[in-house]
Amino acid sequence: MVDPLRRHRPFDPVHVAGIATTSWREEHNAVVDELVYQATADALRAANVNRNEIGLTITASMDILDGRSISSGLTNSASGGYLKDSYRLESDVGTAIIAAAQAISSGDVDIAVAVGAYNPETSTRGALRQEFLDQLSNLAFDAHFARPVGMTTRTSYGLHAAWAIEQQHTTLEELAELTSRAIAAGAGSARSMRPELASAQKILGSPPSAWPLTELMLPAYSTGAAAVVLASPARAARLTARGALITGVGHATGSYLENTDWLKDPGASTARAAASAYRSSGIGDAADTVDLVEFTAPSAALHQPLLAALGLDKSLTPEHINPSGGAATNYPGLANGALRLLEVIERLESDHNLHTAVAHSVDTITGTVVLDSTVLIVEGV
């Protein structure tokens, strides 16, 4: 049965004309603009689009990660933005995809490119590299108002997990089992950074990261870039477009340190983003409409609250929830939103019994604090 609300879409659908990524590695031996260029060139080639046809490019990256001020001076040109309308967003590429889609939906342009890149500039390796990333995370908190001592992305995940266990919302053993299933789901994928199966016992025995979480309960970080070429329906008809439409978008930001929602209700921003996306897509009942979800849970303890925030925790079977394994198998930083989108597109194209999917991503620079969430509604064509 067709939901009657779907007859009135506030958001005009946008076609995914092309999408491409670089390889995913622990660290690329390349500067960020080289990765952006590679992903963008491959996406344009896949869509059969010439650079001169681009109306807008939007890059998602951060100076603090790129290791240079105003790094968009390099990346905007690499994304096809030379002598074009172009700008940079310091957030997950999901926000860039939303901005590009809105520009097309409003009629401003016919073709737009959104690119996300993540390859932190550091000469350190192993544990020292993680310490460097923790330092960058701490710097991202607002020192003028909060000055949190020792607060990092990993610390926030550990604090939330400890609170969830203390409140008897879950147990450490349940988190380990959940992680084991996620790693197994993505083990056969060439994109997985954790290709080997891991039992719950192995996960509990992996190196401690942020008590009570162990290393394997946190994202499988990778580096690389991803580019998405979007087109209006009229323009997509003349392209080799992928079999997917973006029919709704939503974006919201979470609370700051003085509000305890970041600890007790980390799914708040995801819930607001999802509500906006469902409304713009004309979806009245997500549980009755959505067939597949690829969402981003940066820790095992965040899996249930974020899935519930999307309104999909009771309606989908396990094989339709993060079939790629999600962030437990590959989390490419600011490029994550495009990877989640690619995963749902490939499944919509390969399984015609699936019609509507959700791609969800979060910006993890400050962990659960000020959690920036994006939600895309994707439909197969």
Automatic annotation (TrEMBL):
**InterPro entries (alphabetical):** Thiolase-like (IPR016039)
UniProt cross-references to PANTHER family, sorted A to Z:
ACETYL-COA C-ACETYLTRANSFERASE, NON-SPECIFIC LIPID-TRANSFER PROTEIN-LIKE 2
Superkingdom, natural source: Bacteria
Q: Which GO terms describe its molecular function?
A: acyltransferase activity
Q: Which UniProt keywords apply?
A: Transferase
Is NAD set as a keyword in this record? no
Q: Does the keyword ATP-binding apply?
A: no
Record SUPFAM superfamilies: Thiolase-like
What name has this protein been given in UniProt? Acetyl-CoA acetyltransferase
